[in-house]
Amino acid sequence: MDPAAFRSPPSPNIFQMFYRAQCEATEVFAEAGSKALLPCKCSSSSTLPRAIIWSKANSGSSPSTIWRMERSGMQYWGSGWTQKGIQRARCTNSQLEIGDYSLQINSVREEDGGYYTCRVSPGGQVPQNRVLLRVIKVTISPPVAIWGEDVSITCNVTPWPNAANVEWTLNNSPFVHQAEMNSIRQTPKKVLREEANSRVTGNWTCAVDYKGKVVRASSTLTVKGIINPSTDSTKLYSAVGSEAYLPCVLSPDLNLSSSAWEKLKPRSLFKPVTGHLPTTFSPSSPSSQTPWDISASLKEVKFEDEGKYRCSATIGGQQLTRIMQLVVAKIESSVVSKKKGSVTLTCQLTDTSEVTDYEWVHVVYGLNGTQSFGSIKKGKTLILNEVSEENWDEWVCRFYGKQGILGNVTHHSQITSGLTGEKSSAASPNIAAIVGLSLLLLVLLLILAQMYKNHQRRKRIFQYPALETIVHTASNQQEERERSRGKK
């Protein structure tokens, strides 16, 4: 064969006639951006130098040369097969000596898909080899979406194989999409259309099953917006009298224009109606140190502060919102028996839909401030049967959900008499008043006793008049002597 034949590819008609005479082409799948190896092996034992040419068939035009090597060892590349000065397609020199002329394509592109032909001269058992390269790629538009935007996720194979089946996985788990699919019946799952949220964030993988062979391609979808809490209707638990933290954290690199907090009135799920924020509400929490953290807090939670709160943020003219529910817990005590001193403690929450179990823990404090945990009892209510030191200090009610502990609330008691902390503090002034009255009464009794003694002494003196005259005369003389001393 004349070497000059490698310098100019045959006419399209000759190529088409040759393709018809060939067997079915070898199919190779490659993910866009990866490496593809197109096989071409010759079993001839000839030791003569060979010329190799790889060409790609183009629709409606002559095949284009990709890579060519002359018998002299000179190599040539076709236009469009370089990337940043590096050739994307070439044969491995170390394999040429053993008759392996496979073509390696680096950084595969979608447009690389199609039919390739390998020709070797002088020929062997495989003078010409035909390979079909199919390039699989997952395209996400837009790849970085704002929460609530429409996102299109497409699995494409170039050229597309007929009767291929497509399956999707998200973060290595099968994805059950809820949005409408592509209207083309032949490829019902080729395109997914979803609303950008936390549910669709992550690594999307398209698996194409064709003739019993499965090939995959992946791409990542990033959704920016309010990342904490990640979903609406997140329940936050707090106890009466404690501080509550209402999180609202945005993606770090978003340009925040404005933000606001609202409390929604009850039974306003579909059409939220704004209510009044609690008096202890603070629009910024201690942890809010960055512009994308617009969390808030309640300094001292009251039982009536329960309900739904909405955080709003404006990003580039688009408003993002997140609704969260504050569940408030408290302990109510009631006297069962005054004679026995029995008290019932009840753990109450404004919403118990997520609560699966209650647990009471007895906390005892030592003289040096040490803390120890005593008995643990189950149930929503706790009955303390008798007044004893065993029931002093604190009882903590812990409530649990399916994922673990949700929160806790503490009851402070002393000789559990059914009195709350407010009643105990109210009794303190009464005790002080009783002590004061007792001291006053004691002083009055002492005065009355002294007056009684003086009266008895005078009574005894009046029984002896002569003695009274002597005492009176002695007293007058004593007074005169004191006056004379004062004149001197």
Automatic annotation (TrEMBL):
Q: What is the lineage of its organism?
A: Eukaryota, Metazoa, Chordata, Craniata, Vertebrata
**Keyword Cell membrane carried by entry:** no
Q: Give the record's keywords alphabetically.
A: Membrane, Transmembrane, Transmembrane helix
**Transmembrane ranges?**
431-452
An example GO CC term for this entry is: membrane raft
The record's annotation in Pfam families points to: V-set
InterPro entries from the UniProt entry:
Ig-like_dom, Ig-like_dom_sf, Ig-like_fold, Ig_sub, Ig_V-set
* PANTHER family on file: MICROFIBRIL-ASSOCIATED GLYCOPROTEIN 3, T-CELL SURFACE GLYCOPROTEIN CD4
Q: Would you tell me the protein name for this molecule?
A: Contactin-2-like
What GO MF annotations does this protein's record show?
A: MHC class II protein binding; protein tyrosine kinase binding
Q: Which PROSITE patterns does the protein's record reference?
A: IG_LIKE
Q: Does the keyword Ribonucleoprotein apply?
A: no
**Top-level taxon in the UniProt lineage:** Eukaryota
A Gene Ontology biological process term: interleukin-15-mediated signaling pathway
Which residue numbers delimit the Ig-like domain? Answer: 12-121, 127-222, 229-321
